[in-house]
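Tokens in:
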């Protein structure tokens, strides 16, 4: 199977770009960030203190996560309930980034599920550690980035389109905070990663660049298999 691994800082457009690229290539899109958000949602809904990593770890066996794919794309299920929209709030996003994603046991808990998905189909997978830990053998690894201001503008627009109040300055502060929180993880890059800076690029330009890279690698991959 052919795998495309996409990493990068918060707000770089990883999910939307990966989803569009997967559709253009006929691949399955896997939003791994949704898995961490789902765990964060579970902890918030069950009033488990996110600052208490031991309590979070103890609750993991009760978290039932599944991903389903259909004509409208990926659906994220928690205990059989569709939480695809519920996990997109700022509260859940910050909880996942600030607390849940930094618990080693949580990351290990999700590794098997993510690798299993990549064994079933050609995938475009975005999220933390994809090219270094989850899919180190991915044929294309991309680090998608942009300036903090550009990422904050995109995030503000995304929240407004979802009907959630958003203030650009507040979102910018949160983007910078996320960068600081994720500093160690973002520094861990695969040696063969391709960096794609999307500052100043339109969405379609980014998708076209990514799919162009992918098609070149797919051609090389198919030649090697012959």
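Residues out:
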């Amino acid at each position: 199977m052919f795998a495309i691994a996409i990493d990068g800082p918060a707000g770089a457009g990883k999910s939307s770009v990966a989803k569009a690229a997967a559709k253009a290539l006929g691949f399955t899109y896997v939003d791994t960030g949704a898995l961490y958000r789902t765990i964060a949602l579970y902890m918030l809904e069950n009033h488990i203190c996110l600052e208490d990593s031991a309590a979070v770890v103890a609750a993991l066996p009760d978290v039932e996560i599944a991903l389903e794919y259909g004509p409208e794309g990926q659906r994220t299920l928690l205990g059989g309930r569709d939480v695809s929209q519920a996990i997109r709030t700022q509260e859940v996003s910050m909880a996942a980034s600030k607390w849940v994603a930094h618990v080693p046991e949580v990351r290990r808990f999700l590794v098997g599920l993510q690798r299993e998905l990549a064994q079933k189909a050609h995938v475009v997978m975005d999220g933390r550690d994809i090219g270094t830990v989850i899919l180190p053998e991915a044929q294309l690894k991309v680090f998608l980035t942009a300036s903090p201001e550009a990422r904050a503008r995109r995030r503000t627009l995304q929240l407004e389109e979802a009907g959630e109040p958003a203030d650009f300055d507040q979102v910018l502060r949160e983007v910078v905070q996320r960068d600081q929180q994720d500093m160690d993880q973002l520094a861990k890059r695969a040696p063969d990663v391709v960096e794609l800076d999307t500052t100043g690029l339109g969405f379609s330009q980014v998708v076209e660049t990514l799919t162009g890279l992918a098609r070149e690698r797919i051609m090389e991959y198919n030649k090697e298999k012959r």
